[in-house]
């Protein structure tokens, strides 16, 4: 996983399945939501994203953030928050690895 990009913004599109990340230079990139999950241990919701422009067999960097869900529990027009705690990162990576192993898909 990579470091987060500063000044994250998201745009509502196709049932909130896409998020636009804006880096500190103002460059925008569209990401697709891989999945979201909640952690009781940290009391947060998390979203994992991958570049929307990625080809099916292309290796990509997964971006992960915590977020405040909307009333439907989705990533909406709200803010994404960087994951800065090492233990929290480890938990997110474990969830991602479980997802990849269960799904059989390489991201």
TrEMBL record:
Pfam families: DUF1292 (PF06949). This is UPF0473 protein FC83_GL000322. It comes from the Bacteria. Belongs to the UPF0473 family. It comes from Agrilactobacillus composti DSM 18527 = JCM 14202.
